[in-house]
Amino acid sequence: MAWYDEAIFYHIYPLGLLDAPRQNPYGEPVHRLRELWPWIGHIRALGCTALYIGPLFESVGHGYETTDYRRLDSRLGDNSDLKDFVAECHAAGLRVIFDAVFNHTGRDFFAFRDILHYREQSRYKDWYRVNFWGNNSYNDGFSYENWGGYDLLCKLNQKNPEVRDYLLDTVRFWVEEFDVDGLRLDAADVLDFDFMRALRSLADSVKPEFWLMGEVIHGEYSRWVNGETLHSVTDYALHKALYSGHNEHNYFEIAHTVNRSLRMAGGSFDRFRLYTFVDNHDVERIYTKLRNKAHFVPVHVLLYTLPGIPSVYYGSEWGIQGEKHRGGSDEAIRPALCLEDMTDNACTALLSALGKLRQETPALVWGSYRELLLRNRQYAFAREIPGQRVLVTVNCDEAPAELVLPGEGSYVGGLSGQHVRAEGGTLRVNLPPCAGEIWLPEGENGERPRLDMEAVRESFAREEQKAREQAPDLTAARPVVDKPVEEMSIEELQGAILAKMARNGPVTEDMRRSVLVNTHRGSLLNWVRSFR
Questions:
Q1: Which of 45, 151, 161, 444 falls between 20 and 30 A from 413, CA-CA?
Q2: Beta strands, E only, 48-100
Q3: What confidence tens digit (pLDDT) does each residue in 399-426 have?
Q4: Helix (H, G, I), strand (E, B) or coil at 212
Q5: CA separation for the pair 60, 57 (Å, rounded)
Q6: Range with the lowest mean pLDDT among 71-75, 393-397, 482-486?
Q7: Strand 66-72 and strand 130-131: pairing?
Q8: Separation between Cα atoms, residue 61 and residue 63, nearest integer Å
Q9: What is the predicted pLDDT for the residue at 457?
Q10: Percent of the chain residues topping a pLDDT of 70
Q11: Which helix (H) or strand (E) segment is 373 a member of?
Q12: How far is CA 406 from CA 9, 281, 425, 441, 531, in A?
């Protein structure tokens, strides 16, 4: 039993949240990281017990083209800022894991700079997979393996003992200097397996319960999650199922995904806890992806109760929107936010209640999983440990639903406080539209206040009605003005984006709609700045 097994994560992309410049000027450190201090209390109040933050280290632009692994990005501050921040998190009861970008570096990394200068004579030429008879998009007169087809991201040769030792020493440095508790390994699905085994050996010795979680999109997750390589990987399969299963009113997709993971785990999730999420810094916001915003409730009930280690991406606790822009820019899903400007709402209340409930209910962390009922629009399962059996029910229909489940005894809704009693081995549960509930055995529900689920539903209904009333006129022109984007209104920002789109080619109706439905100022600012 380790801390990460029962963790609830909060995820921060710091360069976006703190509104750092898109390109690194490599100047004097700007201590933006210290602006995160107030967020620590907010994260804890949300019920989260761990923080995944990154990328953090000196880089060219978005953070994944590393220049220096052992220096905090100067746009965020200096190493003392990061050391103090981790210490503050620990004092508040938050574990911290860093983004570890070990698959590739940027072109400004010292080893690659040496190759640019000395070519075949560089002592670092074997740190990468270089072909000195080719060429690349920078016209260097040689080619090299990269990540994702981007020559900006130069793939390291992890088979090289010097590279392996340098990266392992970097992990030791991060532990000694910052007291970090684990790593999220970027692009783990293309990392060398021998290198990951070396990392796991190091993790088991460098710090008790040092956690390794890898970014893996597709595949048989058990290839990475085992006793020799990583402790966990990102559960992209469940991420996709959670939003599309609700959009399509198809709980079979979600249940199938869970059962597939169960098979990969050899029939038990005891040693196979995947990192679960509904959005992150690489995918669109959950509130944007859901066609019916009220599905925010059952989606998150499942996120917090299905087997896995749940994570909340900064800003989504307020239900902010964020859509990936055509052309590949991720800036709209990595916005700058000021905590003082954010107002708690039904989304925040729900996630806070779920966080507290998960922390207080061991069966939701350690319990076995057993499917009890599965229909297109209703789904129920049990999580059970010796002495505690918890039932989870969700309804994605826009109408109320009755669920008839096998059960004994009496239960109380962990969210609503509603009481139900089984009769003759049958438990009848009534769920409102677009709802979810966690049923605890009577007597184990404690005295904590219940979430007013009716108020939550009314809040989402008001938001839907407001969205309909304020739906933009897709035929109306938006003003195009000549002034700094920071001074533009929402409509002017929309006009500026549409104008820039038009310069690149025809603007389709879908493209126009994606601009006009976005009324989040930070997102629009990031969008308009993303054009070159």
A1: 45
A2: 50-53, 57-59, 66-72, 95-100
A3: 999 999 999 999 999 999 999 999 999 9
A4: strand
A5: 10
A6: 482-486
A7: unpaired
A8: 6
A9: 77
A10: 95
A11: strand 368-374
A12: 33, 40, 6, 14, 57
pTM comes to 0.88
Query: 3-class DSSP state for residue 195?
Result: helix
For residue 33, is it left (φ>0), alpha (ψ between -120 and 50) or beta?
alpha
Question: Using one digit for the tens of pLDDT, what is the confidence trace for 169-196?
Answer: 999 999 999 999 999 999 999 999 999 9
Give 456-514 as a DSSP string. HHHHHHHHHHHHHHT---TTS------S-GGG--HHHHHHHHHHHHHHHS---HHHHHH
Q: Model confidence over 94-123: pLDDT tens digits?
A: 999 999 999 999 999 999 999 999 999 999
Q: Within a 13 Å sphere around the CA of 21, how many CA atoms are in the beta-carbon half?
A: 15
DSSP string, 137-148: TT--S-EE-EET
How many of the other CB atoms lie within 10 Å of CB of 342? 14
Q: Which domains does the chain have, with CATH numbers?
A: 3-103+161-363 (3.20.20.80), 104-157 (3.90.400.10), 366-465 (2.60.40.1180), 485-516 (no CATH)
Matching residue, tokens 């029910």: 393
Q: How far is CA 192 from CA 119, 159, 177, 211, in A?
A: 25, 7, 26, 18
DSSP H stretches of helix in 311-392: 346-360, 362-366
- d(CA 129, CA 121) in angstroms, rounded, equals 15
Contact 329, 527 (CB under 8 A): yes
If you count DSSP H runs as helices and E runs as strands, how many of each does the chain have, helices first?
16, 23
